[in-house]
Amino acid sequence: MIRSATLVALLFLSALSLDSHAADKPRFTLAWSIYVGWMPWELADSVGIVDKWADKYGIEIEVVQVNDYIESINQYTAGQFDAVTATNMDILSIAAASGVDTTALIVGDYSNGNDAVVLRGSDDLAAIAGERVHLVELSVSHYLLARALDTVGLSERDITLVNTADADMVGAWTGGGVPSVVTWNPMLNEIKSLPEANAVFDSSMTPGEILDLTTVRTDVLEQNPEFGKALVGAWYEVMALMTSAEGREAALTHMAAASGTDYDGYATQLETTYLFAEPEAAVEFVTSPAPAETMQRVAEFSFDHGLLGPMAPDPGFVGIEFADGSVYGSTANVNLRFTDAYMRMAAEGEL
Question: Positive or negative CA dihedral for 327, 329, 334, 339?
Fold first, then answer.
């Protein structure tokens, strides 16, 4: 079986055509943070795939890991990065709501069980009524909780929210005094393995709603389409490795180690991630009615929780454009765009 070191060597050999004289090349930056759906960027950077595709288009791309996920989006919003990995809700409520026109370049996957509501000692979601619920407030966990409560006729008025950092979630549960948490992997899998933990609602029950994206500043993309082409080309080269008989084990082993787990741990997380491994699948999803339906729900949640800012008069304050050119919300304030253009190039072999 091919091991990580062998994979790295093979990929570096495939990238030997890199131009060593890069001083005058346009330079771009991509920020990412550790999560199962974004680990492909770590692999692509580590083994030279990003450099290979950047060189093809005569540019440089620096891939930067930011340890704090929300901070990575804040830095992107402040102009410190040209691109960032983010969920659909967070890129809307942080960057787009702050006036940063952003394009969802790659729709990589959606959470299909990676996020869940967990109750102690009960497998009945309705038993959450009257309980304290620990979660990262105003995150996708909060959104998932709202969707869960709605299915049993409850609202946030029926529970008590306790804002808890994701790094503290497992410790809070193991302390024994926490009746309920809402969290994501890898913390979720660790909590689910403990006594009395029952996942009573998860993101597989809201398919396609928690999207993991690679997003780019729209003005940067429009002025430098080669940046988008290089990112998409690199992404789908990693997808091909992850799904090939020859490369899967080595690729997953590498990404597992980089994310602080082992092969089995990372593979388990992938099982609850609906990965658009082929560009054709991503194009089909982006051009379907699903993104518009989801983003309306997300915008309404964001507005109801004050995430669109004090000046937002309604959920449509930030216009969201979809692949067919239709817009949800304000056509005068379009700051989030879903496009199939670059993924379609990959699907049609035009990169």
Answer: negative
Q: Which residues fall within 8 angstroms of residue 303, CB to CB, at 6 or more apart?
A: 312, 314, 315, 317
pLDDT tens column, 76-114 = 999 999 999 999 999 999 999 999 999 999 999 999 999
Per the structure block, which two tokens stand in for 35?
């999560």
Q: What per-residue confidence (pLDDT) applies to 7?
A: 53
Best CA proximity match to 66, nearest among 93, 96, 23, 35: 35
Residue labelled with tokens 């979630």: 169
Cα separation, 272 vs 266, whole angstroms: 10
343-350's contacts with Cβ under 8 Å and 24+ in sequence apart are: 343/105, 343/106, 343/107, 343/232, 343/279, 343/282, 343/283, 343/286, 344/279, 344/283, 345/229, 345/232, 346/232, 346/233, 346/236, 346/279, 347/278, 347/279, 347/280, 347/283
Residues in the chain where the model's pLDDT stays below 70: 1-23
- CB count in 10 Å sphere of residue 67: 8
Q: Give the Cα separation of 320 and 102 in Å (integer).
A: 10
Question: pTM of this prediction?
Answer: 0.88
Digit-coded pLDDT (tens) for 245-269: 999 999 999 999 999 999 999 999 9
Residue 284: HSE in the Cβ half-sphere, 13 Å Cα cutoff: 6
* CA atoms of 321 and 292, how far apart (whole Å): 9
